[in-house]
Amino acid sequence: MAFFIGQPLFGSYGSAAALIMWILALPLLFFKDVRAGLAGRKAIWMFPLAYLLLVGPFFITATEPHDLIYAFNFIVFLLAVPAFAVAQFFKGEKWSLMIAFLSLAGAVLCLLIAGVGVLGFEFKRAGGIMSNPNMLAQVTTTFGFVALSGFYLFDSRWRFLFLGGPIIAGVVIMLAGSRGVLVSAMPLAVFALIFLALRRGGRRWVYAGVAVAAILVGSLLVVDRDALTPIKRAMSLPQVVTNVIEGKPIRDWSTSMRIELYKGAVRAFWESPIIGHGWQNAVRVAARDIPGQSNRYRLSNAKLAARWPNMHNDPLGFAAASGVFGIASYILLLAAPFALIGRRDAFFVHRLYIVLCLVTSTFIHGLIDAPFGHDMGVNTYTLLTVIVMAVFRKDSQDKGAENQDRTASAAQTA
Description:
By secondary structure, this protein is mainly α. The protein has a domain at 6-36 and 91-235 and 341-413. It has helices at 6-10, 12-24, 32-36, 46-61, 76-87, 93-120, 133-147, 164-176, 179-197, 203-222, 229-234, 237-246, 253-271, 279-287, 301-306, 314-340, 348-366, 375-391, 406-413; strands at residues 293-294, 299-300. Strands 1-2 form a two-stranded antiparallel sheet. A hairpin with a 4-residue loop joins strand 1 and strand 2. Helix 6 (93-120) runs antiparallel to helix 7 (133-147). The longest helix has 28 residues, at 93-120. The chain is globular.
């Protein structure tokens, strides 16, 4: 609950509460039954290995004890092991459905926060408490598309609520004005349509989904964008992309700053390709040659960017911070969820769908921003991955489980 509900409501505070919960669960690893759940699950150790590869160079590049505090930013990679071991005690259809419900509840909370912020308090962009617009949009997108997994988990009229997950994600992305998350959500919509189509009669839901998407896009074309600043910002994406591709002057300050910082990150990597510069120095080194002045903040762009907490690009941030070890760590983090999917069973397609959504959205968004550079992003990715990979599995005590292989029959009837 701290994870699914706390993050939308309290941002980083909720994320910290989830971490504390799993830290308190560490003593459970002393129990033989809990450790037994890790047998044969070698892939789960990819997360701690990624932690060591990323954080190890921090101890070499640190110039003062305070620099080592950044190692705690990624402590969730170590907590993935106890989280996976404990979550396996809750596997089966009932608990999988609970995860889907909690994901939907989290998405709804994000929608309420975004709506109240933009429409009620007239914020320029929906951000939430101890959060920011991009991370609110990222978390909502994750919860919204994961919630869709509950659609085929039980037979009830209420299952149609899960179809609202991706729609909620789209609305919050617009209210947050997050162009990066908008790009990362596009392939997720395709995954969602394929997931719905993989069962007899599922194609009608695909047609319905396409129709709803067309209505939403049509609404954006006719709405007064100037009345809602975040929507205007999100819809400026095509023009920004066109200018970048054609090499035209980029008037959008945020985009131009990112591009200059990315150039600096590449240079910073080649200056120290083996161990990097440490998380505490990477952004400062990358930002030192950024030209221009910020009239709004009355600072040079170089000094302003040097204050940013991350590189606004995950692969470049990892590379500049920890060199080739950081690159290896990043690759492991993207590969770990796929390695955890396991063999085909009644929940195989559910696990595959969720992993595709998590990895794809995090990777694409990470090319434009830094989900792994925020506690909410890194915790959501890691904890949701291990929880889903542990819970969305066949429970031997489920009655009639042999006759309810939803996903295997889905693939045959597609």
